[in-house]
Amino acid sequence: MSDVILDIKNVYKSYGDNDVLKNVSFSVRQNRIVGLLGPNGSGKTTLIKIISGLLSDYSGRAEICGMAPCVETKALVSYLPDRMSLPEWMTVKMAIRLFADFFADFDTERAREMLGTLGVSPDKRIGQLSKGMKEKLQLCLCMSRRAKLYVLDEPIAGVDPAARDVIMSTILGNFGEGSSILLSTHIISDVEQIFDDVILLREGRVELMGDAEELRREHGKSIDQLFRGVFKC
Amino acid sequence: MVKIVFDNNIPIYSQIVDRFVIDICSGTLPPGSRITPVRELAMQLGVNPNTLQRALGELESMGLLFTERTAGRFVTEDAALIDARRREMSRSVVSEFMEKMRALGWNDEETVKLITVRRGENE
Amino acid sequence: MLGKLLKLDIMFGWKKFAAMAVAVVMTGIVLPYIRKFYVFPTWGFFVGLCLIICALCLYVCCQYFKSNLLGSEGYLMFTLPVKSGSIVLSKLITAVFWINVMFCAAGAAVVFKMQYTPAELFQIISSVDMWKRVIFMLILCNIVVIPIIASVYLAVSSRNITVKNKLLNGIIAEIIAVVGSWIAIRASFWGIELYNDSEYYMSLRMDSASKHEFMTAWMILIIGFAISMLFTAIYGILTNLIIKKRLNLK
């Protein structure tokens, strides 16, 4: 039984003339937190959409636990989008019930607990919540699933620094045994200490990847500094 | 455990190791006390659990921590070992300090006098 | 899974649709009283209102299809572990359900408008023939409406295929919707027009008309319905294919 949860091989994606992903290859093992890093427009979100099954028109191989994105992999992948995806007319309670209904691996108790800790009231309509509350809600629902792979698209972008710590510890405290996290962000400096492995995407290509601690030791720099260096040339 | 401010330019695990060593030597983490489980501690510190695990592993090989299979991880009760480490660390702190003072042009006796005066001011 | 999707889709709009249905029924109740004070073509008004409500109903369903699947909510819907076919089917079934609720509301409104005495009402309700005619009309309406819904869904999905020319996409989508609906409805009525006889229409009005005619009319209606469903199925499958193969959320 392979411990590779996510395997990306030679993935290409272009929109007309625009090549968004060029020959991207990497893999994510079990029990690892992997950072998918790169500036806006480097193809991170496109890659994530492919993994989550939101984009089916690409070439190459993307396999979650050995399967191409399909109904079964959607049950294994917990996706946090970079935008609000929950219907505004629903209440928080309804949203929890929705997740519990569709996802067998959803832990309702945990979700309720997390939302209580984060101060999200269950009877409020989603449309009535502030932006920060909406993001916390989505994060809670995502992390309350006992999934094999958590794919988080820019969870801390647009969040104030105080809330960032809360979000990071929610992520760290809740990912299950035997799971992995793929976290994409363009803000590296605040969060690099949680990554096992990092992958840098630039203009759709993998520029650099490896174990975070090894890279720090090898180059004597922070991952943030390392990437800034890559972008200078 | 008080939050560590990490320097991202050097491996995180070694910074965790250093911090634990200091806490154990100073008695902040008393001998025989239980270490918070890895996941919880990783969450508190804001670091990757694997990185923390590696640091704790190194501390174990140094003899400063030990694992009891069902009960968890504990600080060693070997006072002699802790003391030895404390002295070793202190020695390097002192040498560093003396070097800096020498760089400022003080000789060792003058340095000691400055320390005494400083102590006097503090009381 | 389909059941859960249906629950979700119905939960979305039930207030709007319930309000529309109530509005229709209320109109039927209120119109006769208005007529006492102000004479105006109440039937014309009523039919016009029904058509508007019907169109509104269709509009709401299509808006929901668009926003739930091709907008931000798509990021949720398409990550649910369900087949895309179930998602499309659920939307179709919900639309058909609400349209039929509207038809029933219109029927109830007509009954109220006619202001039958309890005796007359009882006579009508216990007449089997009456119910036959009602069901006939209902199926006829569905034959027309269901392919329209399916072809609009297809049109909305096809807008999503290429990213290049938005205006062209929009035009193509409109063409698909209109042409698709027209072909389906025409084909369904082809079966009905085979029996190009006014006697067929007579059988709707007279309950003493020859049962033979009426039976044949039913067979033709069933054929028409089958053709209509066939087209709906084709459009549904095409919609599902587009969504499965060419999904491209913004």
What can you see in these coordinates?
The complex is a heterotrimer of chains A (233), B (123) and C (250). Chain A has 233 residues and is an alpha/beta fold. Chain A has 8 helices and 9 strands. A 6-stranded mixed beta sheet of chain A has the order 5-6-7-3-8-9, with helices on both faces. The mean pLDDT of chain A is 89. Chain B has 5 helices and 3 strands, in the order H-E-H-H-E-E-H-H. Chain B folds into 2 domains: 12-77, Orthogonal Bundle (Arc Repressor Mutant, subunit A), CATH 1.10.10.10; 80-122. Chain B has a 3-stranded antiparallel beta sheet with strand order 1-3-2. In chain B, helix 1 packs across helix 3. Chain C has helices at 2-37, 42-70, 74-77, 84-114, 118-126, 128-158, 166-194, 198-205, 211-246. The two termini of chain C are 26 Å apart. Chains in contact: A-B, A-C.
Topology at a glance:
The complex is a heterotrimer of chains A (233), B (123) and C (250).
Chain A: E1 4-15, E2 18-29, E3 33-37, H1 44-52, E4 59-64, H2 71-74, E5 77-80, H3 92-102, H4 108-118, H5 131-143, E6 149-153, H6 161-174, E7 180-185, E8 197-202, E9 205-211, H7 212-219, H8 223-232
Parallel strand pairs in A: 3-7, 3-8, 5-6, 6-7
Antiparallel strand pairs in A: 1-2, 1-4, 8-9
Helix pairs in contact in A: 4-5, 5-6
Chain B: H1 12-26, E1 34-35, H2 38-45, H3 49-62, E2 65-68, E3 72-75, H4 79-103, H5 108-122
Antiparallel strand pairs in B: 1-3, 2-3
Chain C: H1 2-37, H2 42-70, H3 74-77, H4 84-114, H5 118-126, H6 128-158, H7 166-194, H8 198-205, H9 211-246
Beta-strand content estimate of chain C: under 5%
The H-and-E topology of chain C, N to C, reads as: HHHHHHHHH
Mean of all residue-level pLDDT scores of chain A:
89
Helical region count of chain A? 8
* Approximate helicity band of chain A: 25-40%
Structural class of chain A: alpha/beta
Question: Within the CATH hierarchy, at the fold level, what is the topology of chain A?
Answer: Rossmann fold
Major β-sheet profile of chain C:
none
CATH superfamily of chain A: P-loop containing nucleotide triphosphate hydrolases
From the spread of the alpha carbons, the general shape of chain A counts as: globular
Query: What structural class is derived from the secondary structure elements of chain C?
Result: mainly alpha
Helix content range of chain C = over 70%
Overall structural domain count of chain C:
2
Radius of gyration of chain A, in Å, reads 18 Å
Shape of chain C: globular
Number of domains of chain A: 1
Uncertain parts of chain A: none
CATH class of chain A: Alpha Beta
